[in-house]
Amino acid sequence: MRKDVASFAVGALLLLLARLAIAETPKLNVLFIAADDLRCDLACYGNPEVKTPNLDRLAARGRLFTRAYCQQALCNPSRASFMTGLRPDHTGVYNLTDHFRKEQPDIITLPELFKQNGYEAVGIGKIYHNLNTVPAGDPVSWSRPQILFWGNHRMDQPQATGYTNVPFDRLPPTQCYDVSDEAYLDGRIAAAAVQALRELKDKPFFLGVGFWKPHLPYNAPKKYWDLYDPAKIPPPSPAGWPLGAPEIAKHDSSELRGYFGVSKQGNFPAADIARLRHGYLAAISFVDAQVGKVLDELDRLGLAEKTIVMLVGDNGYELGEHTLFGKLSNFELDANVPLLIAVPGQRAPGISTSSLAELVDLYPTLAELCGIKPPRALDGTSLRPILENPARKVSDYAVTQHPRPVDFKGTGIMGYSLRTERYRYTEWLNWQTGEIEACELYDHANDPDETVNRAGEKDFTDELHRHQQLLAAEFQRHPPPWQKHASSAAQHNPQTNSISP
Fold this sequence. Notes:
Blueprint: H1 2-24, E1 29-36, H2 53-60, E2 63-64, E3 68-69, H3 75-84, H4 88-91, H5 100-103, H6 110-116, E4 120-125, H7 185-200, E5 205-214, H8 222-225, H9 254-257, H10 270-300, E6 307-313, E7 318-319, E8 325-326, H11 332-335, E9 336-337, E10 339-342, E11 357-358, H12 362-369, H13 384-388, E12 398-404, E13 413-419, E14 423-430, E15 436-443, H14 461-477, H15 482-485, H16 494-497
Parallel strand pairs: 1-5, 1-6, 3-11, 4-5
Antiparallel strand pairs: 2-10, 3-9, 6-10, 7-8, 12-13, 13-14, 14-15
């Protein structure tokens, strides 16, 4: 009897000690950094000509995902998706004006989840979309009002002595002025983030820092332009439209064409393309320097060992490749985004992974790493296994989508794109009938630049059908809204509806 009592007492004591240890375990902070229109044109992603020393050192201490993909290559839908953990078909956001709370008024966003679990949630810069949504940003997400997050990208002109703002309709796509970093929004955002870290250092925090660049206009301070020799910046490759690709996959590069002095139709002159590519690289290096300031302060305050750092681009970008400028399509360059995650005690730091990942995975990843249970079922999957072992995988494919027309309001065509280990398959579906209007299949083992659409070739028939079945299975798991509109006779059936490109 005494032995039983003693055993019970020892067990109770051990349980109490374990609970106390858990209670005293400090919460991991989160530094969540987003960059606008940042494609994988970085030194750490294999382009040594691009000057990104701070992103490179973040990659060296964490995990770099070479194949991470956005859910839609457009700011508002992409950010609404990764900040809620839901795909665009579930947020109802496909354009630049709809707010995710229109369809999901009670949804708990990523920073809101942390706020509800004892964190100070602070937003600085562009985390959600920056214009034309109601409400502006998402006030309920944050513990205090968000700052430096709202307005037109064209308003980001130098705040410097002797400079007069150019009217929006006269603003060119590139500018090069010898001004300080703080003359532009991103310099001021970095300064505000440094100050926020000092204020938050003694409490658990979720700090969202959103940089507005390298989005148009390309107007980084002159010192970042000077990092590059224009003569050594290569032209776009591939410059031509993919052989056999359907016209519906195109867009008119309207964002760039809206700037002063840019051709409103037809091909872009070679000199203009060279200048734009130079300006984009300068903007990347500008953002890199601002990230460096924030990381330096994190280290100086001794917070790096208890802070998860996640850096992500909201969508990819084309700089003249495939005849296109901007995002707005489903090609690899549009869908593939930088994703860097550094976790305290990171296993195998500095080793990249080619495992497929999606931005919809960010929400469950951060929640699991910080021991927080999400309030609902999410569309993504935690990337924690890959953070622990870069050879592991959590998904067999990634899904990106984009509509036609681009300013989608519920009628038209939706392009769904699957990225598997070797292929990219895109299916353009009629939103009203569910019928396949066109399809694309690119073989990344032999054609990583996506120059030839193989969907109509006999040798690729089996792969075409396999990917059609994969997408059909995805629709079974996550029914898209078009299924509500399509008649039962025209429901998506890849066996009967598949067509040549």
